[in-house]
Design a protein that fits this description.
Order of helices and strands: HHHHHHHHH
Structural class: mainly alpha
Radius of gyration: 19 Å
Mean pLDDT: 80
Length: about 240
């Protein structure tokens, strides 16, 4: 077992990239009290993208297990489309019946359509989903490399990855206000990934579900980065900026 562990500490194995991700998250947690909200958001985005990207280009991660290649699009779309519609319909029903989405309390600014804001959030959701698929694929590959792999490595891997993503969220989140929507997004995309192993569909579900779940004042308000010298956008909205 020790030999297996040491063998994973190589740039062409997923174990090293998972370890780097964990250490980076802990470092980000350690320095976050000393950073502004804008800087924290910038570093979180870099954290989501950099380690998985390096792992892919250096051959340490499998693009197939991360849901990027060898996709059966016919099966993915036939099953994934139904899952996406069902999940979004459920989330929309919950949102409409929630007390926090009272149309009478909305301001004219809340109802304005801001395409640039939505486009930014779309790509930001893609970066987060990219990181989640990295965790799923890396855990899956790591379990397959065990001396005695579990009976259903894919099933075990995606839920182990979900637990890691929850832990990372606790370390890196800027505000606790959106904790529940993020948890729902993680569960929804985990289920979709399990049945389709398709990053692109997971990204689509992630972005659409975020529009449904995010409070109106967050999803449609003016992005905070436009007033902070061009820094990256925030999930937190105006009222959460310190």
């Amino acid at each position: 077992m020790l030999a297996w562990f040491l063998a994973q500490l190589h740039f062409q194995t997923p174990g090293l990239w998972l370890l780097l991700s964990l250490l980076s998250g802990m470092l980000l947690f350690a320095v976050r009290p000393y950073l502004s909200v804008a800087w924290r958001l910038n570093l979180i985005l870099l954290y989501w993208l950099l380690i998985p990207y390096l792992g892919l280009i250096l051959g340490g991660l499998s693009p197939r297990l991360m849901g990027f290649t060898d996709i059966d699009w016919q099966a993915s779309l036939s099953l994934g489309a139904g899952l996406i519609v069902g999940i979004l319909a459920t989330l929309a029903a919950v949102r409409l019946t929630s007390t926090g989405d009272n149309a009478a309390e909305r301001t004219p600014e809340d109802t304005m359509i801001r395409p640039r804001r939505h486009l930014i959030e779309f790509f930001k959701n893609g970066a987060e989903e990219f990181h989640w698929c990295f965790l799923r694929g890396a855990c899956w590959e790591l379990l397959l490399a065990l001396p005695t792999p579990p009976e259903f490595p894919g099933y075990v891997a995606i839920w182990v990855a979900g637990a890691l993503a929850l832990g990372e969220r606790l370390l890196t989140q800027v505000t606790g206000r959106l904790w529940l929507p993020k948890l729902i997004l993680l569960l929804a995309t985990t289920v979709l990934f399990f049945y389709t192993r398709n990053f692109w569909l997971c990204w689509l579900l992630h972005a659409l579900a975020w529009l449904v779940l995010a409070p109106t004042s967050l999803a449609q308000s003016e992005p905070a980065w436009s007033k902070t010298g061009g820094s990256l956008p925030s999930f937190t909205g105006k009222n959460q900026r310190q």
